[in-house]
Write a structure and sequence with these properties.
alpha/beta
């Protein structure tokens, strides 16, 4: 069997999940990998056959998407050329983790594909979603369309939705509480975060920043460039994670039993939905309308987190099900 696994390269979550899924797919056949997008800090250990430009959302430094930089990276002629060049009929199974080039190539050629991603869960009306303008929901629906969907979310909201894929390296971590808090906010500059966090004395902060190329310490705040191993170690020994409204990072923190505070990116519908879902469990959220973060952060540090999450290791069973049901 020949399998094409297409992965979105914006952010770290898609590739982190793929690192767990690829070995499971390889048990079923010959797997070839495709990545489009340019904003990930982690890499796959397996060779990538197709590295495409795709459509990437570029993180800003003030809590949102940098729309100008995102627009500059758009290249529709290249997108169409890449879409037409893919030899999709060679594959018995095409799996798509929110990757638009392969998704649209399949749709336009009438070839079946499986959307296997967190975003796939949003096909269900049962998934918590805040009220939003219609265009945001349309982007989620049509950015990477598929024939079949298998989703992951914080809870089993529907019969095709499963709990998050937690990487083996996270499941195997030795967890403790050394009293510090880990911070990863890729859309916010550390020049904003450091003065803010210094206002909470007696708390040590370990900030991993996409915007700093060197390590430095300022008062009770340590800043370091993003590094997977160092971040995992920091998270395992932390009291909690202060992060964006993504999916994989918050899910891993909740799996480890850490307190969680999220800041969803402005005008990013998926992150707004994730934060809305976490709010239903009683977890704190800093929304874009909140201009004073300090009281929320202080309260989060001082208060325990009541809800406990259970994410069983079911990834192998999900992959077996996908292969059996959708391979041709």
């Amino acid at each position: 069997m020949k399998i094409l696994y297409a992965i979105q390269g914006t952010g770290n979550g898609h590739i982190s999940r793929a690192r767990e899924i690829v070995p499971l797919l390889q048990q079923h056949g010959d797997v070839e990998l495709l990545i489009s997008g340019t904003q990930a800090d982690v890499r796959l250990s397996q060779p990538v056959k197709y590295q495409l430009h795709g459509f990437s959302f570029i993180f800003g430094k003030k809590g949102g998407v940098d729309h100008f930089e995102t627009w500059k990276t758009m290249n529709l002629p290249r997108f169409v050329k890449d879409m037409r060049s893919l030899p999709l009929k060679e594959y018995n199974l095409i799996i798509n983790d929110f990757e638009p080039v392969t998704a649209w190539a399949c749709r336009l050629r009438g070839i079946e594909s499986v959307g296997l991603s967190h975003q796939a869960s949003f096909q269900s009306p049962k998934v918590p979603k805040p009220k939003s303008i219609d265009w945001a929901q349309l982007v989620m629906k049509y950015y990477a369309p598929a024939t079949h969907y298998v989703g992951f979310h914080f809870d089993r909201y529907d019969d095709f939705i499963y709990t998050p894929v937690i990487r083996s390296e996270i499941r195997n971590l030795m967890v403790c509480d050394l009293g510090h808090y880990t911070v990863y906010l890729p859309a916010i500059d550390d020049k904003f975060l450091v003065p803010l966090l210094k206002q909470i004395p007696g708390v040590n902060w370990q900030v991993f920043s996409k915007h700093s190329k060197v390590k430095y310490t300022d008062g009770n705040v340590q800043v370091a460039p993003v590094n997977n191993e160092e971040f995992n170690a920091s998270l395992a020994g932390s009291s909690g994670l202060f992060t964006g409204g993504g999916f994989e990072g918050p899910a891993e923190a909740l799996f480890l039993g850490k307190k969680l505070l999220v800041v969803p990116m402005k005008f990013q519908y998926e992150q707004q939905c994730n934060a809305f879902a976490l709010k239903q469990f009683g977890l704190p959220v800093i929304w874009g309308s909140n201009k004073d973060w300090l009281p929320v952060i202080r309260d989060w540090v001082e208060q325990p987190q009541k809800h406990k999450f259970y994410f069983p290791d079911e990834t192998a069973a999900v992959i077996d099900k996908v292969v059996k049901e959708f391979a041709r």
